[in-house]
Structure formats: C-alpha cells, structure tokens
Design a protein that fits this description.
five-stranded mixed beta sheet; 35% helix; 9 helices
C-alpha cells in the first residue's frame, strides 16, 4: 500500500493556503505544514522557516504565493528533489523559463487555473480556434476579478489566449492586444484581445468571444468559490507525487493529455 503523500503549502496562512489545509485533510493526505510570514499557522500544521526547510520535509509543495518568489522556490524544490504544484500567476518570461528548467529535474504541475471546468474551457478554446478562421472570427477575452488582484490580465485569461493561439498555430506574444486606450486604430487582423475588469470580491469570471460579421460565440466560466481551485490543486499534488521529472499541466492530471498546457 502506497504511503499518503506528504504535502507542504507555501504561504499556508494566505486565503488559498487556508483552503488548501482543509482540502489536504479531506483528501486523507499528510499535511507537513507550510511557510508563513507573521500569522499563526493552522492547528496541527508546522511552521517552516523557509521554502528550503519545507521542501526537505515534503513530497510535494503547493505554491500559490507571488511571482517574485517563483525562481527562489523552484531552485529550493529542485535542490530537495521535491515535486512542485505551481498556481502563481503573473510570472515573467524569465520566471517561466525557470519553471520549465525545474521541470527537467523534478515533477512540476504548472497551471493558470486548477478548477476542472476552466481546463475544459481551455481544451474547447483550442478546438474552437482551430475551427474558426482568424480572418473571420475575432477572438476577445474578458475577465473580472476582485479588487485586490495585483496582476492583469489574469493567468487564466492568458491561458485561454494561449489555447486560442495554439489552435491557430500562433504564439500568443505575436498577436496579443491588451489594455486598449486612446486612438488605437482599427483592430489588427488575427489579434487576440484582452480586457481586465477589477471590482468587489469577484472570485473569477472569464469569457472568450469569437466575433464574426454574422455571429458571435461566447464561452464563459464563472467561479463562485475558491475551494474549486484548492480541491484541484490537491488533486494535482496527489497525482504528481512520485512521478518522473517533467512539466505537466492540469490537462495531464485530468487525463486530457494532448491539450494545451494551462499555464505554460
């Protein structure tokens, strides 16, 4: 019988961290503890001094912290040989390169969003983009989040954009248009547009629109509870623990391998 996975949580006292604590216990895994700045850690969890100490104690670390920590955390997990479930958004190209390099040494699940429904949207977005010609169907992505969110567009919106671009055989960086303002001129043919809304306490809303002269098609996902993200991340942690090094996506976790990686 396989021993339960030992799971560590980076930022265990954060909003996502506390939800992850509940989901680890519900899954029957072992919560070894986590890193925290100042708040007391939940009962039964150990506070670790830093990511290096946490990595040494865990089989897998779940990380929803901050883009600025991605390279540091990746290096510590590689050194310890510990699996990494990464859901941090707003990573730079340099950060993402570091994640890819980590995946050559340890198993990494990197996703823009861990909710199963969002990952189905990503799969559908890629297939729809492949079927709807870019010169006839303009792709626009609109997202809304709570007022505290610090990055825009959201990681999930970028993931949807990457899925659309992949379906069209493009790189998102070549066709992305975000934050239109002023006299921008006509919309560029084949562009993938982004609009980011912030306000209230919206957990997350994403809509992909394919707009043609004769019809509009909209694909929408609304999250009402962050627990769906936490439950998906625990599912990913249990799946990735003990696997061979590699950069995996939530598509792999859901058994949909071959779809666009949701965060890479």
């Amino acid at each position: 019988m396989t021993a339960p996975a030992r799971i560590g949580i980076a930022g265990i006292t954060g909003r996502m961290g506390l939800l992850l604590v509940d989901e680890v216990k519900a899954a029957g895994a072992i919560l070894v503890g986590g890193t925290a700045r100042t708040k007391p850690v939940p009962s039964g969890a150990e506070r670790f001094a830093d990511i290096t100490a946490l990595a040494a104690a865990a089989d897998v670390v779940i990380d929803f912290t901050h883009a600025a920590t991605a390279r540091l955390h990746g290096a510590a997990l590689v050194a310890a040989g510990t699996a990494w479930v990464l859901g941090t958004s707003g990573l730079s190209d340099t950060d993402e390169t570091a994640v890819i390099q980590a995946g050559q040494r340890i198993p990494v699940v990197y996703a823009a969003n861990f909710a199963p429904g969002v990952n189905l949207v990503l799969a559908l977005a890629e297939r729809m983009a492949a079927a709807l010609p870019a010169d006839a169907y303009d792709a626009e992505i609109m997202e809304m989040h709570h007022r505290q969110k610090v990055d825009a567009p959201s990681g999930t919106a970028i993931g949807i954009g990457r899925a659309v671009a992949k379906g069209r055989g493009q790189a998102l960086s070549d066709v992305m248009e975000s934050g239109r303002h002023g006299h921008t001129g006509a919309r560029k043919p084949g562009a993938i547009g982004f609009a980011a809304l912030r306000g209230g306490q919206v957990v997350g809303e994403h809509t992909l629109i394919f707009a043609a002269a004769t019809e509009h098609i909209a694909l929408t996902h609304r999250a009402f509870d962050r627990r769906s993200f936490a439950a998906g991340a625990i599912r990913a942690a249990l799946w990735v623990a003990g696997r061979a090094p590699g950069l995996y996506s939530m598509m792999d976790v859901l058994g949909m391998a071959g779809g666009a990686p949701s965060g890479a």
